[in-house]
Write a structure and sequence with these properties.
This protein is an alpha+beta fold. 20% of the residues lie in helices and 38% in strands.
C-alpha cells in the first residue's frame, strides 16, 4: 500500500504504520520480571528523519509499566524501547 496516496486532512494529526511486533521477557530478579508486548511503527508524518520510527511496549500483567522510544530505524527504536522497558520495570517493582 502506498500511504503517500492518502489525502491530507486538516483533522489528521498522526498516522503510523506497524512495522513489526514482538513479545519479550526481561528478568532482573524473580521479583523484577516482566513480559512485554512491543509494537514498532513508522511515523508517516515525521519531519525529523532521526525520529521516523517509534516503539512502544506494555507489560502484559501490569499495563501501567510501559516504555516508548524513537529512532532513525526500526531496530534503533526497538533497542531503545527494550532498554526503557527495563528501567520502567525496575522502577515499578522497586528493584
Amino acid at each position: 500500500m502506498d500511504w503517500s496516496q492518502i489525502p491530507e486532512s486538516e483533522n489528521l494529526v498522526e498516522m503510523a504504520v506497524v512495522v513489526g511486533e514482538a513479545e519479550f521477557v526481561l528478568e532482573f530478579t524473580e521479583a523484577a520480571r516482566g513480559w512485554f508486548r512491543m509494537s514498532v511503527f513508522e511515523d508517516l508524518r515525521a519531519i525529523d528523519r532521526d525520529a521516523r520510527y517509534f516503539a512502544r511496549a506494555t507489560e502484559r500483567e501490569d499495563g501501567t509499566i510501559r516504555a516508548l522510544a524513537n529512532g532513525a530505524s526500526p531496530e534503533d527504536a526497538a533497542t531503545l524501547c527494550i532498554r526503557e522497558a527495563g528501567v520502567s520495570l525496575r522502577r515499578a517493582r522497586g528493584r
